[in-house]
Structures are given as C-alpha cells and as structure tokens.
Design goal:
By secondary structure, chain A is an all-alpha fold. Chain A has two helices and no strands. With 287 residues, chain B is mainly alpha-helical. The longest helix of chain B is centred in the C-terminal third of the chain and has 43 residues. The chains are: A mainly alpha (156), B mainly alpha (287). Chains A and B meet through helix 1 of A and strand 3, helix 3, helix 4, helix 5 and helix 7 of B.
C-alpha cells in the first residue's frame, strides 16, 4: 500500500468531477425529467377530462334523441287526431250538403208538382171550357165566364 | 503471458505494481523500474496508471452524461438519454430515500461516486493480462488497470466525503454544536466532577466513530477490489500450467467474472449509499 501524491491528484480530480456533475450534468437532466413528468401528468389529466366530456356529450345526445322521439310521437298523435277531425268534419259537411241538396230537390219537385198541377188545372179548365163549348155548341165568352170556368176547374 | 523465465510470485508482484513516476532519492524524477524503486520514492510519486485510468473513466462518464444533459428535453427520450435518465432516476430515488435535508450537492455527488466507482471496478472484468500486455508492447512495463485496487483512489474519495461530512456538520450545527456532538454523547452527566471523564470518553468514542467512516468506506472498496483482482491473477496463473488446468482456469475465470459483476455494482452502490447516509447524519440536528 503506497500512499503517495496520487492521493492528492485523485482528491483534486474527484472534486473537479463532482463539481462538473453538479454544474452541468445533474440540473438539466433532473429539470427535463421533472418537466416531462409534469407534461405526462397534464396529458393524463387532459385525456381524463376529454373522456369525461365525451361521456357527457353522449349523455346529452341520448337526451336529445329521447326528446326528439317524444316530440315526433306527439306530432304524429296530433296529426292523427287532426286527420280524424278533418274526416269527421268532412263527413258531417257531406251529410249536411246531402241533406240540403235533398231538401232543394224535394222543393223543386214540389214546385214542379205544383206547376204541373197548375198547368193541369188550367188545361182541365180549357178542356172543361172546350167540353162545355162542345156541349153548348156555342162559343162561350171566355172573359165573361171566366169565373164560372175557374170555379169549375177548382172543383175538379 | 507468463514465460518460463519468471516465477509465479514475480508474475503476481508484477501485476500488483503501479506504473510510478516520482522523485527517487538517488536518481531524481523518473519512472520507477521496480516495486522497490517505487517504494523508495516515498510520498513524492504518482501512480501514472491509476491517475490515467481513473481520470479517463471519469471523463468517459462526464462526457456521455454531459452529452445527454445537453440534449435533455421534456420530449420523448431515446437511446443514451434513456439510459442516463434511468441512472439519474435511480440515484435520485436513493438520495430521496435516505437524505432528508435539502442539499443540491448530495445527489450529483452520489451520481459521480456511483458512476466513477462502478467504471473503475468494471476494469476488473477486463482480462488481467490484456492491457498490461498491450502496454508492454508499447514499452510500458508496469500497468495496473483497476484504479479501485489502488488505496490512493479509495482513500481520496473517502477523504473527500469525510471533508464534506465535517464541513456540513459545522455548517449545520456550528462549531459548538459539532464539538458538543463529539463530547456530549453517548454518556451524559450534570455532575461537574464527572464531566471531564465523560467528555474524554465521549470524545474517544465519537472520534473513533467519525474516523471509522472514511476508513471503512475506503478500505471496504479497496479490500473487495484488491481481493477480486488477486483472484483473477491467481486464476490467470493456471493458464501456464498446461491445457487441462488452462480450461479449468478459463471456467473459473468465467464464473468469478460473472460473480464479480454483482460485486462491482454492489461496491459502487454501498459506497454511494453510505456517503448519502453519512451526509444525512451530518445534516441531522440530533442522532
């Protein structure tokens, strides 16, 4: 075991290398490692947040879909009701129209009947007059005997 | 590499002799030719091989770690940076685990110690004759390649740590606090007559405790590596004893080298951990 000047040389170089490590090696390495650690932590947190947001969005979408379905169902129901209403209305209208037309036709028929009766009556009067003429063989003054003819016609 | 002209003892001795440059009392500044000459140089000599390999290895560590540190970013790490960060993370965890005070020196110190001791120990796995043979071809006759088998290296590191222990003890607790720690424990008394006795006993006990730290640090590493190197040398002696012994030696060397991978890592780790623990104790207010 020769202890000699080597010891001093080693001491000095030891000090120099420790200083070098402390000055140039350790701080940048630890700093970058810490930075990376923070970055990874941030990234993980962001991912978590993103996942959470996605979950929420999905929930919201589900809600929207549900609402839309409900609305659609409502609208369909309303439309069906309205359609039924319209059909009902049309039905009543048609019935009314039919009734009205029937009434009008009946009135017309009655009018026609009346007219026919009127004509028949006047014809009958004429016929009666003609008959009476024939019977009397003589011209009856139509104007003078109008009331008599009419009275006869009315009795028919 | 063992010729018939040198004996086993000479071979071992040759392997354990440092390349020494120093002031010889008779010949002045020169490279020592033999172990005896190196011894005669006394304190004023430098183990050139030790200094060369240790500084070379530390520079290797500093170069690669500096390269990684310069390129370090918070982005995706790759290759070298990954490797460096793995080690830094490991050291950082060790320091966090056993060092409770706040000190920016301790972690880089631990990293330097771990990496340096590990690299110096790693030289043990290079076949014992390879580098000495290359250097002998180049005309250098002594070459001890494992710096941590040189007590100068381990003592230098341990003394560096020891200096920091005393520095921080005094910085954190003041001179009075440090002296009080050395003299006021473990025996405590309020009796004025007994006080000098307890003080002296405490000083002896705590002094031994304090001195034991660097001594045990350095001798543990030195002893382990020296013994390991010795076994490698002894195994390599078998290569000159016929091919049966040679094959047996080769197997032994492989087994010992694999086992030694554990030893060199463990020694580096122990040195680092104890440094952290000692410095933590220096920072702590009370034991």
């Amino acid at each position: 075991m020769n202890i000699n000047l080597t010891l001093i040389a080693q001491l000095v170089s030891f000090a120099v290398f420790v200083w070098f490590t402390m000055k140039f090696v350790w701080p940048p390495l630890v700093k970058s490692m810490d930075e990376r650690k923070a970055k990874i932590a941030d990234g993980l947190a962001a991912a978590e947040r993103g996942q959470h947001e996605q979950e929420m969005a999905r929930e919201r979408a589900k809600e929207y879909l549900h609402e839309a379905k409900q609305q659609a169902a409502e609208i369909t129901a309303k439309a069906e009701k309205q359609a039924a209403l319209i059909v009902e209305e049309a039905k009543t209208k048609a019935q009314e129209e039919g009734a009205r037309q029937l009434a009008a036709a009946q009135a017309e028929i009655e009018q026609e009947v009346n007219r026919a009766r009127e004509e028949l009556r006047s014809r009958v009067a004429e016929l009666a007059v003609a008959g009476a003429e024939k019977i009397l063989r003589r011209e009856i003054d139509t104007d003078a005997h109008k009331d008599i003819v009419e009275a006869v016609a009315k009795q028919i | 590499m063992v010729g018939n002209e040198i004996t086993s003892a000479e071979y071992i001795k040759h392997h354990l002799t440092n390349l020494t440059f120093g002031n010889h009392p008779d010949h002045g500044w020169m490279l020592a030719g033999t172990a005896e000459e190196a011894k005669e140089m006394g304190f004023w000599a430098v183990h050139v091989d030790t200094v060369f390999w240790s500084i070379g290895l530390a520079s290797l560590f500093a170069f690669y770690f500096y390269k990684a540190a310069k390129k370090a970013s918070a982005g995706v790490p790759s290759g070298l940076q990954n490797f460096v960060e793995m080690i830094v993370e490991f050291i950082d965890e060790s320091v966090r685990g056993s060092f409770s005070a706040k000190n920016d020196l301790v972690a880089p110190l631990a990293l330097t110690i771990f990496a340096w001791v590990f690299l110096m120990n790693l030289m043990d796995l290079v076949p014992v004759d390879l580098i000495p043979w290359i250097s002998s071809v180049l005309g250098i006759h002594h070459m001890k390649v494992v710096p941590s088998t040189d007590p100068n290296v381990t003592f230098a590191m341990a003394f560096g740590v020891f200096f920091l222990i005393i520095f921080y003890s005094i910085k954190m607790k003041g001179v009075g606090g440090f002296v009080g720690e050395l003299t006021g424990m473990p025996f405590q008394t309020n009796n004025l007559l007994l006080k000098p006795f307890t003080t002296v006993i405490n000083l002896i006990l705590e002094g031994v405790n304090l001195i034991a730290k660097p001594i045990s640090l350095s001798l543990r590493l030195f002893g382990n590596m020296y013994a390991g190197e010795m076994i490698f040398i002894l195994i390599s002696l078998m290569y000159s004893a016929g091919w049966v012994m040679g094959i047996f030696g080769g197997t032994l060397q492989l087994v010992w080298a694999i086992f030694h991978i554990l030893v060199i890592t463990l020694q580096a780790f122990i040195f680092m951990t104890l440094t952290i623990v000692y410095l933590d104790m220096a920072h702590a207010e009370h034991h």
